[in-house]
Write a structure and sequence with these properties.
Elements (H helix, E strand, L loop, with lengths): L7 E7 L6 H17 L8 E6 L6 H11 L3 E6 L5 H12 L5 E4 L10 H10 L4 E6 L7 H16 L8 E8 H7 L9 H8 L3 E6 L13 H15 L2 H29 L7 H33 L7 E4 L5 H6 L2 E3 L2 E3 L3
Parallel strand pairs: 1-2, 1-4, 2-3, 5-7
Antiparallel strand pairs: 3-8, 4-6, 5-6, 9-10
The chain binds uridine-5'-diphosphate and magnesium ion.
Uridine-5'-diphosphate binds next to β1 and α3.
Length: 339
Amino acid sequence: MSEAKPILWIVIPCYNEEAVLPVTAPMFLKKLEELAAAGRISEGSRILFVDDGSADATWNIIRDLAGKDERYLGIQQSRNRGHQNAVLAGLMEAKDRCDITISIDCDGQDDLNAMDEMTDAYWQGYEVVYGVRSQRKTDTWFKRVTAEGFYRLMKVLGAEVVFNHADYRLISSRVLQSFADFEEVNIFLRGLIPLVGYPSTSVYYERTERLAGKSHYPLRKMIALALNGITSLSVKPITLITGSGVAFSLLGIAAMIWAVVEAFQGKTVAGWASLVCIVCLLGGIQLISLGIIGQYIGKTYLETKHRPRYIISQRTWEPRQRVWLEDEKTIDGETQKQV
Ligand code: UDP
Ligand code: MG
């Protein structure tokens, strides 16, 4: 009897990806076949696309794929909720149906061959395997500097993340079962998964350019992601604010002593300019500090609402709700449901 192989589900978030999906979908299937042929995974493995409320033909493409090959599956979110929530929806959908998941973007930027090493690492006993970019040659200078600055800033501010790792990773369903207990709505997966624990390792790969379509992560969204990561993982900024408050108070005391000495020496008229400077400076610092505290309060507010983090409106393997309702027939005044 051959040894049981783990069932893999590849989880792929897609948002307005009609240009690239027809190109990359067959690549994912080919990789799945290769992994199964090499005995790394079970033949029952699947590819799960998560349509993140796309406005283009993405969902139709996913449905067509699912109709053609049973190894393609898809779920659709009821609206666009962002990359992190789309990945989360896919992982939660997969966790009871497979042994391991690999999340990957749908644009073909991440090297599929890294999945060989990822699954090997799983066989060796690792439950989480991070895909780490070995270099950023294909990025523009600006993207490289801002992205690497992002990781450094995260670290300085107390949010521990794997350097140059995005959302290409293998996670066992055992880890996902534990992760399901993390109920927060502000999710930053690459910071949260390390908190779950379990043995983990990294594999390195080169990231290339998108095969088609365009990026959904402009600088504005990257900054938002960085802020979300920092404020959901660490309270260090609040400590920094307190520290700077103490430092400025000490400076203020020194300035007061200085002012009193000056006054005793009869030089009291001088100092209007410096006073204005100090008021402005302190005003600015106070506003920034209040803003940061506001971020945390805002986050707490969002968490207390316990809103669902994702809502799945359709699955390719289930009949559409509307079809079922249309099948409801009224016979002699009685409603008969066709099951
Ligand atoms: N994505 C998503 N929802 C969004 C934005 C993006 O599911 O609101 C998906 C997108 O389809 C892709 C992945 O997240 O598979 C990464 O996005 P993108 O390639 O645009 O980001 P980049 O690689 O440029 O950072
Ligand atoms: Mg991309």
